[in-house]
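If you are new to this repository, start here. Below is one unmodified record pulled from the training split, so you can see the exact layout before writing a loader.
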Amino acid sequence: MKALNIPRGVRRVLFRTSNTDRKLMWKKEFDTSYVGFMKDGAKWLVENTDIKLVGVPTHHVFLERREVNLLEGLKLDGVPAGIYSVHCLPLRLIGADGSPTRCILIK
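And here is the target side for that same chain:
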């Protein structure tokens, strides 16, 4: 994580992993070979950056810190690495701890 050189002030990060290239998000059944965060990598991000939103498969370390929001199931096919503004539009659901969300990237 340290090698990514995420500068202070960056508050949202979307991680494109091989899950996208393998089209795991398009499968109807859960594939246990998905790529996720190791606990130490997630902990490093929480402790050493200003990130408040992470787009990845979920991880308990992120969930322990209530101020870090998670976006799961991102389909980033054809999205090159770069700096984007991300806008997320969740459905307002009463009594839910999550929501389907439409996310828009603007370069």
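Two things worth knowing about this chain: The mean pLDDT is 81. The beta strands are 12-14, 53-55, 69-71, 85-90, 101-106.
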